[in-house]
Amino acid sequence: MTNGIEAKRVADTSIPSGLPGAWALEARGLGKRYRRGWALRDCSFRLPAGRICGLVGPNGAGKSTLLGMTTRQVEPTEGELRIFGVAVGEASVMPRFAFLGQDKPLFKRFTVAETLRMGSELNPGWDMAAAERIVRSGDVPPHARVGTLSGGQRTRVAFALAFGKRPDLLLLDEPMSDLDPLARDEMSTLLMAEAVERGTTVVMSSHMLTELEDMCDYLLVLAGGRIRMAGDADALVPAHTLVTGVTRDGRLPAGLDGHTVIENRVQGRQFQAMVRPNGPLSGDWQTSEPSLEEVLLAHLRSPDAPPLYTPGARVGAEGTRTA
Ligand SMILES: Nc1ncnc2c1ncn2[C@@H]1O[C@H](COP(=O)(O)OP(=O)(O)OP(=O)(O)O)[C@@H](O)[C@H]1O
Description:
four-stranded antiparallel beta sheet, 2 domains, elongated, single chain, seven-stranded mixed beta sheet, alpha/beta, binds adenosine-5'-triphosphate, 9 helices, Rossmann fold
């Protein structure tokens, strides 16, 4: 089984060279406070360019707030956010990203062809061939009005608009939530193919853990407005071990005391703990490597567990905090 040290080594190989723009996103001490309280706080992380990043967290965790700050729709209360090394408030970042929100705003009276033409008029670097390829590969009739399309076809047109812009960073807020399993599968294949071909960095929020496991090689996990995990999926998962054994008094064995226990579940005389080992893990119990879904669920159920960053994902938040 891989241990935490090996995991760190895996993560280190993916750290960009430090060239300006090597990080698609870099947040330092980022926070947003509404009248009811903080939606996001102390948010510091790095996302290397070219990765497909899953943004995960329970309802109200702060995912849309983070995406909103990235797309300049939400003004940060504190901290800073950079896209490819440029502060998000600078006008020059605008052509570099595209955003596809949950509601996929499209003009229902426009035909598909008119929608793509609008995309070409609004975006200087528009790639009509790519946009048309995406629409054509889903057999979406170019002369149909958008209002008459199925949910899956509309999503495909929205994807075509987003990719036609040729963004370096594509931000997706639960892009597949209204799709049936077949359309979902088609769209995720399309998304992966387009992203890989163009080296597009993707940030995608989703509640579908299996979808994230299939598509994403990088993860940002939020809970309660704070980052709980950030970094390479390949390194985050093996940093955890699932420990199963017998408990006499409902408590964990003392041998686990020196390790970080993310979650402990007791059923009868049996316990199952999600553990982040801080050294060799030997005792009267069984261990196994958890799946990504098991690791995510444990963190989502235990928002107070200590956060985990792979080395490349960590960034200092010095000097940016306000009251
Ligand atoms: N415009 C707003 N005014 C006041 N509070 C807000 C506003 N937008 C978000 N919030 C609050 O900020 C917190 C984070 O919300 P956010 O929408 O970012 O969560 P989320 O992770 O995207 O949730 P979901 O999975 O339900 O979409 C919530 O407590 C929410 O009520």
